[in-house]
Amino acid sequence: MKSSKPETPVATTARVPLRLRAEVERVLLTRNQIARRLRAMARDIQQDFKNREMVVVSLLNGTVMFLADLVRCLSLPLRLDFIGVSSYGAGTQSGELVFTKDLRLDVRGRDVLLVDDILDTGNTMARVLEKLGALGPRRIRVCVLLDKRSRRIQPVQPDYVGFEIPDVFVVGYGLDFAERYRNLPFVGVLHPHVYTAKQTSSVQNPHMTSSQPAKSASQTD
Ligand code: PRP
């Protein structure tokens, strides 16, 4: 297996839409940069899964955009299923992982492509790999759009990586902060004042649902 190297974001002149400029600092990856990289990743995947029927297992919720675009670049037989997993931080670095949806397809003896939007500490992926591995697939390959390698705690080694990114708080293209910004067609960097403000208000409001600010100023969603 020989995958193309992850890209690192290159400076772009793309501008954040006016209505978001107070919250989103800059565009890290444009929709065109993402689309181009996805086509290369799809070629790598097709090469590796040639003549096999694969099961694509995607982690909810952040993967929605990435998954939808990636599978449309794949022209080989596949079946699709989802695992729901979320980290509900309690002010800790790792947060507590909660499984909210189990697989419906049987993956025993199957070739699995596990897809997630971002690999950060690796805690989520490590837990999912353990759970999935116990179901007896023939092999599991891990595919992520974004990799924050500098933040890794668990020794998870993804097989296909779109972009290696620095330790900045990214939103858009499926990634959220407090469940917002997922619908942006690009990946942008959130202004620190947005999540530091929310962090303060989450202490005041224990019903705030997002785990992201609790995991330091790092990226988790
Ligand atoms: C995010 C992201 C990854 C995970 C990465 O999920 O989608 O699954 O965190 O972080 P880690 O490597 O430190 O474990 P989140 O729990 O925020 O849920 P979401 O996909 O619904 O946004």
Secondary structure layout:
Blueprint: E1 24-29, H1 31-48, E2 54-60, H2 64-71, E3 78-88, E4 96-101, E5 111-119, H3 123-133, E6 139-147, E7 160-164, E8 170-171, E9 187-190, H4 192-204
Parallel strand pairs: 2-3, 2-5, 5-6, 6-7
Antiparallel strand pairs: 1-9, 3-4, 8-9
Helix pairs in contact: 1-2
Bound molecules: 1-O-pyrophosphono-5-O-phosphono-alpha-D-ribofuranose.
Describe it:
Helices cover 23% and strands 27% of the residues. By secondary structure, it is of the alpha/beta class. It has a single domain, classed as Rossmann fold. The strands form two sheets. It has a six-stranded mixed beta sheet with strand order 4-3-2-5-6-7. α1 crosses α2. The longest helix has 18 residues. About 7% of the residues have low confidence.
In short:
With 221 residues, the chain is an alpha/beta fold.
> Structural class given helices, strands, pairing?
alpha/beta
What's the total number of strands? 9
CATH class designation? Alpha Beta
CATH topology: Rossmann fold
Helical region count?
A: 4
Please give a handful of descriptors for the protein shown:
221 residues, alpha/beta, Rossmann fold, six-stranded mixed sheet, three-stranded antiparallel sheet, globular, binds 1-O-pyrophosphono-5-O-phosphono-alpha-D-ribofuranose
